[in-house]
Amino acid sequence: MRSLALAVPALALVALALYPTIATGYGLRAVLQVFTWIALAGSWNLISGLTGYVSFGHVAFFGAGAYTGGILMASAGWSWPVAALLGGVAAGVLALGMGWTCLRLKGPYFAIAMLGLNEVLRALVSYFEGLTGGGNGLSMPTLDATVPIYYAMGVTALAVTLGARLIIGSRFGLRLMTIREDEVAAEAMGIPTFRHKLLAFLLSAIGPGIAGALTARDQGYIEPLSVFPLATTITMIVMALFGGKGTVWGPVIGAIVLFVAQEMVWARYPYIHPLLFGAIIVAVVLAMPRGILGLLQMKYRLPRTI
Amino acid sequence: MEDVHKSFGGVRAVSGVSLSLPRGRIYGLIGPNGSGKTTLFNCITGVERCDRGRILLDGAPIQHLKPYEIARRGVGRTFQMIRVFPELTALENLLVVTTGPRAAAEARARELLAFVKLEGLAGEYAGNLSYGQQKLVEFVRMLMRDPSLVLLDEPAAGVNRTLLNELLDAVRRLRDAGKTVLLVEHDMKVVMGLCEVVFVLDHGEKIAEGPPGTIQGDERVIEAYFGR
Fold first, then answer.
1. Quick check: is A1 in a domain?
2. What is the pLDDT of residues B21-79, one digit of tens each?
3. Which residue among A174, A191, A298 places its CB closest to the CB of B68?
4. A169 vs B210: CA distance, rounded Å
5. How close is the nearest chain B Cα to the Cα of A298, in Å?
6. Would A188 be classed as within a structural domain?
């Protein structure tokens, strides 16, 4: 069982590494998108799945990374790997500032504040035209980098997932869960909850920041509406919930299954696909509020780090 | 604790209470519902910040500290309504409190679970345990930090006789180990049998203080409980 649990991800990893040598253009783009969703849903899970502080504006970090990376590439001519890392740094800095003020808020108030952050960023980016191109968007020099971006996004998704594995398997991860379970009791037991939340929030912003900058490079063009969409936040939340919030592999499974489902529904029913997709989401959340892995974990006493 | 005040809006929950708790004894805090007992607990543990007055722990003021800082200085508590972490296992409930090497922490956690005969349920989610078992988990979780001052909010509520006696034995052993215990309790038999000094609160003020025998006969205490 244990060797199987190691063999499956290892084989998947090798297959994904070799995939670009045989892939069609569509196939490569599809897997790249799955990588992006894994990085986003897995990152959201670190703050919201573990501490219960639901971030309703997590795409703000994606957008901040996209614009930081985009400006560095387009205006300063930096190479994309460096720009991508700095996109992650920028998102982390933003998370520290935002978390410092907003993580003192409880429950729905934090969710709403994060929603507000995303709108504010979009407005700021539109306003400072000189730097960001405003509503006209920002174009990067043409460069076909799909294969390198594929690998970079894959490594990002892997890093987020391995990071989650390390955190959830540690007492730091358990302490994050005590915040979700009962914050007052956690404090009374000597756990500095604010510091824990802030660190989790910082960690949860870096992945989306890098993914945003990589996406900017990949698409070659960004504009405020394309990198700060609320729908992206909702999709990453649904993926994490579907797979199992608070688990390591839940967001990965959620991203793969829902991405494939979305593509299939979209191909067959182009006009009503949002409706069908919405119905699937409602059904799943009603039937399995813990998500696939959460359900299995409770039922079969699986280890915490699945 | 000196001259502690706490109001919620226009309600004076605690007004001008001073208590002194020399080490190594068991103290009781009693009073009718709404007399300010839990508020006083919350002030000591930093959950509420008192409006006025000082709270000293070993001579150092702690009334301005955050709850986790107070816990780290050796104040442990249990809650009136049980507050275990339901989706963590019994063992994890204790582990989260620890830092340092994990193996040693786990050994200590298992030792404490064995102390209340719950070692067989270490891997069970705390939310699946019975009320009494959760109460024990909460009790030993509080002991993980080896607190010097132990605050128990209604330890006897909803606990059967056998379990209660075990719990009371454990409290006495804590006292024998040199710890100070302050408990809020409605069950007078428990208070009278266990506590060495009893404080009585009414309408946020301390109306009596002394050994249980003296308190029972105190005019103002009888009046507060039964009316004139």
1. no
2. 888 899 999 888 888 888 888 989 998 888 888 888 888 888 889 999 999 999 999 99
3. A191
4. 50
5. 9
6. yes
Contact B87 A181 (CB under 8 A): yes
pLDDT tens, residue by residue, A135-192? 788 888 777 788 999 999 999 999 999 999 999 999 999 999 999 999 999 999 999 9
Contacts of B91 in chain A (CB under 8 A): none
Ordered DSSP codes for B6-52: EEETTEEEEEEE-----SS-EEEEE-STTSSHHHHHHHHTTSS--SE
Residue with tokens 């128990």: B152
Q: Locate B156 and state its tokens.
A: 């006897």
Set of chain A residues whose Cβ sits within 8 Å of the Cβ of B109: none
Per-residue model confidence as pLDDT tens digits over A36-84? 999 999 999 999 999 999 999 899 999 999 999 999 998 888 899 999 9
Q: Give the total number of structural domains in chain A.
A: 1
Whether B228 shows a pLDDT value over 60: the answer reads no
Domain range spanning residue A32? 27-229
Where do the domains of chain B lie? 2-83+147-226
Fold of B2-83+147-226: Rossmann fold (3.40.50)
CB contact under 8 A, B77 and A171: no
Give chain B positions within 8 Å (CB) of A51: none
> Does B149 reach chain A within 8 Å, measured CB to CB?
no
Structure tokens belonging to residue A198: 């802030």
Q: What's this model's pTM, rounded to 2 decimal places?
A: 0.91
Q: Report the alpha-carbon distance of residue B154 to residue A164 in Å, rounded.
A: 39
Query: Hunting for tokens 């007078």 — which residue is that?
Result: B188
Reported ipTM: the value is 0.88
Contact A188 B97 (CB under 8 A): no
